[in-house]
Amino acid sequence: MISFSLRPLFVLSVTLLFSTLHAADLIAPSGDVPPPWAYPVDPPGVVQPKDDGTLRHVPDSALAMTLSQVKDGFVSPDWHPDDHPPLPGIVVHGNKPAVMACGYCHRAEGTGGPENASLAGQPAAYIIQQMADFKSGARVTTLPQRAPQKNMMLLSKAATTQEAEEAAAYFSSLKPKKNIRVVETDMAPKTVVHGWHLADDKTGEKEPIGQRIVEVPDDLEQFISRDSRAHFTAYVPPGSIEQGKTLAATGGAGRTVQCAICHGADLRGLGPIPGIAGRSPSYLVRQLYDLQHGVRAGLSSALMKQTVEKLTLDDMIALAAYAASLEP
User: Fold this and answer.
1) Residue 73 neighbours by CB under 8 Å, 6+ apart
2) DSSP three-state, residue 180
3) Fewer CB within 10 Å, N- or C-terminus of the chain?
4) pLDDT tens digits, 184-203
């Protein structure tokens, strides 16, 4: 059993950033509207494709699975079993009827995706604390009707302490992978919302990036198949990486504090504090926004709220772009 300390060191910090939602779906506590690109919401009435029995494949795997198999919330598709240690039961199949397989959403190797968190290499104590915060209701989100966050809030209440510890021990033992390419550009691909994240609409059309991060899977079908080796491209505004680097290093003349103080010189984490380097920028922005608006109020949130309260949306985008560009 893992021992851990519930100290305020859990500066859940800059797991910064947002995910997308429709403006009409949510008004934040302060009255401003969260950026839709950061809180994507599947459109109403979306029809899920039916399983016709076709076997799906992913690169460099001899396995084959149907659509029903890869969409079973109590199965973690394990396309590359040699890439990781044996999966604990809670990670591979969960605990019916209320606790979905951890690896279903976060993938067998904890790589996650833009719609949720990557867990590989995060401190076990940090993961356990987040489960406790979800369970107690201290950690919620600006848009609780988004399925990924809603599922976490529900299943955390049914998961046992032992299950949380087993999952945390497994994910913390993994080495995080560099699977996000950050590209500065004035123009980004047009997107659709697919599975609570953005996806390239494949028309070849582009539109101004504006004040956004556009994070999409490079191969949508590979990501749908829940392959831990899936990669992503995050399109960010020109100059944002350097702006984020400067803000993270200096604190921006009092707008925030130096990120390295808590997250380590390389932003890969420090003790029980999570690493933010190489993580999904969409996820990072959601966390910054949720912290700033008081809906994420776990153990260390008071410290983080002071850190993020003066940040503008441009600041959040820049910090997320910079952090995502680093080696995890």
Assistant:
1) 94, 100, 101, 104
2) strand
3) N
4) 999 999 999 999 999 999 99
